[in-house]
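User: Could you check the structure of this?
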Amino acid sequence: MAGLIEGVRVVELASEGAAFAGKLLAGMGAEVVVVEPPGGHHTRTFGPFADDVPHPEGSLWWRHYNMGKQGVTIDLDVDAAAFRELALGADIVLEAEPPGRLAELGIDVEAVRELAPDLIWVSVTPVGHDTPGATDPFVDLTVQARGGPAWSCGYDDHSLPPVRPGGNQGYHTASLWAVMGALTALIHREAGGGGQRVDVSMVAAANVTTELASYTWLVEEKTVQRQTGRHASVIVPTAETLAVAADGRYVTTGVPPRTGREFTLLLRWLDDLGLREEFDDLIFLELGAERDHIDLAMVGVDPETTEIFGAGRSATVFIASQLDAYEFFVQGQEHGLTCGIVYSPDELLADPHFVDRGFPVAVDDDVLGRSYVVPGAPFVSTESTYRVTRAPAIGEHNHLRP
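Assistant: Sure, the predicted structure tokens are below.
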């Protein structure tokens, strides 16, 4: 099958902020041409490295974020015209340059768009092009701090500082919005609307992922309190979601029962394990099974509702203490309850659920002279395929440049 956007050509300026977006577009079938300086983009110096040997072609950061792309080299400081010509032949330009940087290089975005009215230009910027602070320096950490996720992530012990979400989540979140913007612009263009400028604010993208944290402040002017492994909240601390299984490994008890049906499923799980009578708060599970649903607004207000809701979490923790972590994970899923297991990356890729889905993919890398397993498609489609191939070597596809 063809890719979802097979035939679409994307010209990407190599960057940290938008690299993940380019990777996703390439996976969906687009021809993504990533432009880097002669000698390689600075992210090629990011470790870890293959065999722990620093080398531009051995950066695992570069190889991860640039899979599926083609690579050309252009020195923008002396040959901006070559980039303009490359952009004029594209369907989408994807870049995360600081506001004003392209103008300094002599690249007038609007002039390019006038010459190519169907061109979609996607910019990923810290706070947008026309916002105060647009030219302030930024890194992933400042994006998450200004956007809010760092504010509401951390431990119950508030003498400890907030915890930064790892894995470049600020850049990833912005990249996901960039992909959505690009795909929406493609649909708009196919409907006869022509090309357009898409400006993604990293901080705004991060902000809308804070769930109730930002809204609580804006609407009620209240600050949510950080809770270990749980949603931050202004109300009384909620029960812990992480539990220790019988084999000493951590599991997550997920979302506790909220409906009579879910309490019934939990009771059935206890019955199947022969543990129904051993659970101390059985009466509250039975009361929960008689209700249509639990009104979460009454938790902490109405004593009976509070006890019922707490019993659902306590029962799940109790079951976890009786089972090995993987048994708990599988049985929870089989009983229709959202339970999970805390995996290492290697364990995740080896999990039979993910293997059966085709998520782990083996990549043959002739540059490194080996094959390795990487995360594959983030979605499954019955009508299109997802492409996972190695990242380009420096200047490997220079025949594509003007």
